[in-house]
Amino acid sequence: MLIAKPDYFDRFRCIAGDCPDSCCKEWDVQVDEASAAVYRSLPGDLGDRLREVLSTEDGETVMTIIDGRCPMWRQDGLCRIQAELGEESLCKTCREFPRLTHDYGDFVELGLELSCPEAAKFILNSGRPSIITAETEGGEEPEYDTEAMDVLKATRETALDILFDSSRNVPESLALFLLYGYQAQSELDGGEILPFQPEAALESVWEFLKPGDPIEMTAFFSALELLTPDWAHLLQTPSPAPWSEHHRALAGYLTQRYWLQAVSDYDLACRVKFIVISCLLVQHLGGDIFRTAQLFSKEIENNIDNVEAILDAAYSHPAFTDDKILGMLLK
Ligand code: SF4
Q: How many angstroms separate the alpha carbon of residue 98 from the centre of ligand 1?
């Protein structure tokens, strides 16, 4: 089985007490069944506390946050379970975060998640990351459509080439990325495989561009489920930032993470739009790109309802028509 990961993956280390945010804030932690059973059987103070704060509903156990924090979080920023029982006693969620695993059966892609501030530094500073691959034992027969996956793997490489063409500025690269997304969708639908012609693609849309409406865009995001006051504040007080290579890296991260997921429903175009809209939003909100992108991930990527709302809106919301998105990028 092939395992692929970005070259920075193994260099990541949690900075625990020095973390400016912490994954122990604001969200309930899902606890796997085996860990929950161990926690509930522990003797002493720690066991008593865990029995108080673990709750199970519909077969899913969570550590309920109290006063905005995981109840196992200590004043020194460390985790009480880790401190008293050792790292191996952490539940699966805490042991793995922010490491992502996309397991397709016969191959696995690993990555880091942007919602961790330390991971965000690797992701946004990396440019186009080199992907390291290794063969291991194991794996299963793939259950996905192998023909579609081949198209998605090939088109993802082309999309990344377009995105990381440094002879173009970032918004122009994103516009071409969006236009190429439709060509890739057509290939996924069984259409002819054609070389992408960037100049012709730009020429074809120039007369259709409309001014975008960033206020309409932020209004849409403000109506989604919000987790933190910081995110709500950013949405209310946008301060657009100049485009930078960090925005290009953000698009690269999202492409690496979401492009192949179109194998599940053959809908690549809405994911491409999701990536472009996300970059437009982060640029429009401005502030410190590392903090804004990290908050974006925490609020959006970690809430499946929010992700699905954006995927739907990519087709139906008046702020996200192609002419307006391209207008925001190219005008
Ligand atoms: S968010 Fe990242 S750096 Fe911060 S505590 Fe969690 S894993 Fe560690």
A: 7
Look up residue 254 and give its two tokens: 């999202």
d(CA 330, CA 15): 39
Residue 86 sits at the vertex; the CA angle it makes with 20 and 112, to the nearest 5 degrees, is: 45
CA distance 221 to 300: 9
User: What are the tens digits of pLDDT across the range 90-142?
Assistant: 999 999 999 999 999 999 999 999 999 999 999 999 989 899 999 999 888 88
The span from the CA of 9 to the CA of 22, in Å, is 19
pTM over 0.85? The answer is yes
- Between the CA of 16 and the centroid of ligand 1 the distance, in Å, is 6
Residue of the nearest CA to atom 6 in ligand 1?
23
Does the beta carbon of 94 sit less than 6 angstroms from any atom of ligand 1? no
Residue among 315, 327, 281 nearest 182 (CA): 315
So what's the pLDDT on residue 161? Answer: 98
Q: Cα of 11 to ligand 1 centre, how many Å?
A: 14
Ligand 1 pocket residue status of 149, Cβ below 6 Å:
no
> Whose Cα sits closest to atom 2 in ligand 1?
116
What is the distance in angstroms between the CA of the first residue and the CA of the last residue of the chain? 46
| Segments of the chain scoring below 50 in pLDDT | none
Which SS3 state, helix, strand or coil, does residue 91 take?
coil
Q: Which atom of ligand 1 is closest in space to residue 119's alpha carbon?
A: 2
Distant-in-sequence, close-in-space partners of 319: CB < 8 Å, separation ≥ 6: 212, 213, 216, 217, 219, 220, 313
Measured distance CA(122)–CA(319) in Å, rounded: 31
Dihedral pair phi/psi, residue 87, rounded to 5°: -60, -35
Q: Say if ligand 1 is within 6 A of residue 78 CB.
A: no
